Amino acid sequence: MLGDCLENVRKNGPLVHNITNYVTVNDVANVLLACGGSPIMSDEPDDVEDITTICGGLNINIGTLNKSSIEGMFRAGRKANELGHTLLLDPVGAGASKLRTDTAVRLMDELKFTCIRGNISEIKTLALGSGTTKGVDADVADAVTEETLDSAVRFVKDFARKADAVVAITGAIDLVSDGDKCFVIRNGRPEMGRITGTGCQLSALTTAFLVANPDNRVEAAAAAVCTMGLAGEIGWSRMQEGDGNSTYRNRIIDAIYNMDKETLDKGAKYEIR
After folding, report:
1. What Rg value do the Cα atoms of the chain yield, rounded?
2. 207 beta partners
3. How do residues 40-68 score in pLDDT, each as one tens digit?
4. Distance CA 69, CA 39 (A)
5. How far apart are the C-alpha atoms of 195 and 247, rounded to whole Å?
6. First and final CA of the chain: distance in angstroms?
7. Tens digits of per-residue pLDDT, 115-150?
8. Cα 253 from Cα 235, distance rounded (Å)
9. Considering only Cβ atoms within 10 Å of each terminal Cβ, which end of the chain, N or C, has fewer?
10. pLDDT value for 141
11. In whole angstroms, what is the distance from residue 55 CA to residue 35 CA?
């Protein structure tokens, strides 16, 4: 099932507009190319509406905010809503500062998102309108574990219904829900947390999967999360003596480039609750 979502991305080649953070912008573009999509990057307010118009999806990532890019996010987001395009929010660091929290909450209030993807602390901040995070990483007190899994599943379902969107919470255990069902995903490697931007890459990947699979959104988002996690596993298995996190980043992107339906369907580790 999830492998079909990947095949649709490769078949349709979705064009994705990314207003993303400049720390990871090159890797975001390469991940989109690796999965079969096409990236465009623009955050200039006078440019973003035209760019969004020609794309099928918009990925808004608040990782490196400034007044100009914030204006661009709202202008592009309104255009995406007007055109009925896929719109994803990655609330990077929401809860870590007033600007990030206020921007993320306002984006939620003023735009209609297809999908929201973040760590548990960021998503709780959106749900509550305030919160704290450890920089851009989840607070350890919020971590989704086997012990907290039942309550975390209830939380993500409730928030997905409230937001009327697919919600993806990523961490050691990933949760993807549309408010009705929840994919509990156990792909990935802890070493992925030592690479800058795996979350940013996943948000772009998820946007592409959603654009290519408009009738199966929760499955598409789950497929993207499984693809990224499985690529982390495959990439790690190919590490050699002397390799480090820079090589690991490239091996993950290569694993996505070489991923096919059969590999994803065989390697995806999930249950549905």
Report:
1. 17
2. none
3. 999 999 999 999 999 999 999 999 999 99
4. 18
5. 10
6. 16
7. 999 999 999 999 987 545 444 444 445 788 899 999
8. 8
9. N
10. 52
11. 16
